[in-house]
Structure formats: structure tokens, C-alpha cells
Design brief:
The chain has about 110 residues and is an alpha+beta fold. The protein has one domain: Sandwich (Jelly Rolls), CATH 2.60.120. The chain contains 1 helix and 8 strands; from the N terminus they run αββββββββ. Strands 1-8-3-6 form a 4-stranded antiparallel beta sheet, with no helix packed on it. Keywords: Signal.
Length: about 110
């Protein structure tokens, strides 16, 4: 009887703690301006495809460069461009943004 009470109390205590666990996933919305950006510093997930869009009035050139400094992908993003898929990335990749304005990376 005593063991049963202890086990039920432990299960009851664990069930109260499980209700407090909340996973809060914030949507990814990264704004990038002109420059060289590391995939690792941007905290993008490896082997995942993302979406990129020019949200400014100017034309922007986006390039993805791998660890061997080879251009793997490039997009010419006109003003208020449609959404393009980019990636999948590796942590050694870099994203180069050339031109005035900002681009937005989302999931």
C-alpha cells in the first residue's frame, strides 16, 4: 500500500510538471542588409531549405558561397521580388548580399 501511494504521488507530481512544458517556436524572419553573412552566425539549420525575398525598392544580388569559396547559388532579386527557395545550407556556407536595401529569409 505504501509503495502504491509513493508511485501514484510521483506520477501525479510528474503530470503537473508536464503541463508547464510549453514549446514556443518563433517563426524565422531574418532581415539582412548588404554584406557577408555566415550561415552559422545566422543560426540557420543545416540541410534545410529556406525562402528569400527582396523587401526593398532596390535590386539586390544574393550569392551562396561554400567553404571552398565556390558560388553554389545566386539570385538577382528585383524590388519587392517573389519568394525564392535557397539552400540547403551547410554551416561553412556564407550568404553574400550586394546592393542597397534588405532581404528577408523565412522558413
Amino acid at each position: 500500500m505504501k509503495k502504491t501511494f509513493i508511485i501514484l504521488s510521483a506520477l501525479l507530481l510528474l503530470s503537473f510538471n508536464m503541463n508547464n512544458l510549453a514549446v514556443k517556436a518563433a517563426p524565422l524572419n531574418i532581415q539582412l542588409t548588404e554584406g557577408v553573412h555566415s550561415v552559422k552566425d545566422l543560426k540557420l539549420v543545416e540541410n534545410k531549405t529556406y525562402k528569400i525575398q527582396n523587401t526593398s525598392a532596390g535590386t539586390i544580388l544574393m550569392m551562396r558561397i561554400d567553404g571552398d569559396q565556390q558560388i553554389m547559388e545566386s539570385h538577382r532579386l528585383l524590388e519587392n521580388s517573389p519568394i525564392y527557395n535557397i539552400g540547403p545550407f551547410r554551416y561553412v556556407d556564407k550568404i553574400v548580399i550586394l546592393g542597397p536595401g534588405t532581404v528577408t529569409i523565412t522558413e
